[in-house]
Amino acid sequence: MSTAAAAPPLREPALRGQTVVVIGGSAGIGLETARRARAEGADVILTARNEQRLKRAADQVGARITAAFDASDPASVERFLMDLPTVIDHVMVTAGRPHYASLFEVGVEEARAAVSEHMLQALWVARAARHKVRPGGTLLFMSGTGGRRIARGMAIVSAVTAAMPALIASLALELAPVRVNLLAAGFVDTPLSAELLGDQLDARREQLRATLPIHRVVGSTDVAALAVHIMINTALTGATFDVDGGQQFSGS
Fold first, then answer.
1. Which end of the chain is less crowded, N or C, counting CB atoms within 10 A of the terminal residue's CB?
2. d(CA 15, CA 41)
3. How do the domains of the chain map onto residue ranges?
4. SS3 letters for the chain?
5. Which is nearest to 227 in space by CA: 49, 14, 53?
6. pLDDT truncated to tens, each residue of the chain (252 aa)?
7. Reported pTM
């Protein structure tokens, strides 16, 4: 009589037959989310500003459709979503970047970009997607946890960080039964982080490894795993989910 344990049943890919759009999907968190969604059986549509990087990313994940445009332009976002040939299931927006500047040094255009690349972008995407995302599907946006600490040079970042959860909760009510959620990340080891920190990147990694409760640096795959979970779990809407390895509690 054999005593070998029975093999666990094969799990059906959770996003099979669904379509996931990633706006800002050519690198980092967006690309990893597309990769994970594809592994769960989804068809993937990628957008990014840089056409060459977008093509490389699309080849990596087998994207069905790509589109190169500036996601901070409302007309481009609306045109892209309206031109999609089918109803879609999930939209994740990772386009944009944080803006750190002294209140007395920031220019008008930079201040406007700091707000529009997050809050206004969420509004434009929500308005354009409301007739394209199926009931029960997801709109998923990105914010951060670092701006919750008030500090010099953080006025705009802190204001946007504080406002985003309220905006997302409001959008969840306005767009129901489409679900709307927010991912709040701390430092994530991505190409954008490398660009922002330059030769200080390795020192920042070492500091985080020494001080974070998880004793390692948060990566794109960590954020992507949570993003795909939110797409799958249909009970989640109007919420902000922190994924920073405890950074906001460690003072890192």
1. N
2. 5
3. 19-190+220-241
4. CCCCCCCCCCCCCCCCCCEEEEECCCCHHHHHHHHHHHHCCCEEEEEECCHHHHHHHHHHHCCCEEEECCCCCHHHHHHHHHHCCCCEEEEEECCCCCCCCCCCCCCHHHHHHHHHHHHHHHHHHHHHHCCCEEEEEEEEEEEECHHHCCCCCCHHHHHHHHHHHHHHHHHHHHHCCCEEEEEEECCCECHHHHHHHHHHHHHHHHHHHHHCCCCCCCEHHHHHHHHHHHHHCCCCCCCEEEECCCHHHHCC
5. 14
6. 455 566 666 778 999 999 999 999 999 999 999 999 999 999 999 999 999 999 999 999 999 999 999 998 889 999 999 999 889 999 999 987 666 666 677 777 777 777 777 788 899 999 999 889 999 999 999 999 988 888 877 778 888 899 999 999 999 999 999 999 999 999 999 888 888 889 999 999 999 999 999 999 999 999 999 999 999 999 999 999 999 999 988 777
7. 0.90
Q: Does the 19-190+220-241 domain belong in CATH 1.10.10.60?
A: no
98-108 in b/e form (b: 16+ CB < 10 A) is bbbbeeeebee
Angle at 111 between CA 107 and CA 114, to 5 degrees: 140
